[in-house]
Amino acid sequence: MKKFLIIAFFLISYSAIAQTSTDKQTILNVLERQRGEWNKGNLQAFMDAYVKSDSLLFVGKSGPTYGWQKTFENYQKSYPGKAGMGFLTFGIKKIDFLNKDVAFVLGSWHLKREKDEPQGYFTLLFKKLKGEWKIFVDHSS
């Protein structure tokens, strides 16, 4: 019986690690798609990474913004056109799973534009909804 419990424990642990590894890669893929769309100047596709809901919370230098549409409009105002968007790179520092459906991401961002190179950090909360990882909280500075 003891042997069975030990084997069961290792199988469950391995399954959780495999799921976490797969989910981590999926989140990295979401961020890479997001970065790629930004660099193409496709803000609409960039926003696909966010949950399309009024519950989306974005916190930036102007304070909190609620909702996908308002967040999209703020991005449009702050980064007009391809020149305003520049070339984006991310540096992912860590991904921690708070439970099987929620992940915390810490990273840095850097924009290269003709006249400047703003940069900062972000924290994201991802939630797995209907099998897809979506950002539902973004704090960028």
From TrEMBL:
Task: Enumerate the InterPro entries for this protein.
Answer: DUF4440, NTF2-like_dom_sf
- Name by which UniProt lists this protein: DUF4440 domain-containing protein
Q: Where is the signal peptide?
A: 1-18
Q: What is the species of this protein?
A: Pedobacter jejuensis
Q: What's in the keyword line of the UniProt record?
A: Signal
The answer, when asked if Signal is one of the entry's keywords, is yes
Q: Where is the DUF4440 domain?
A: 30-135
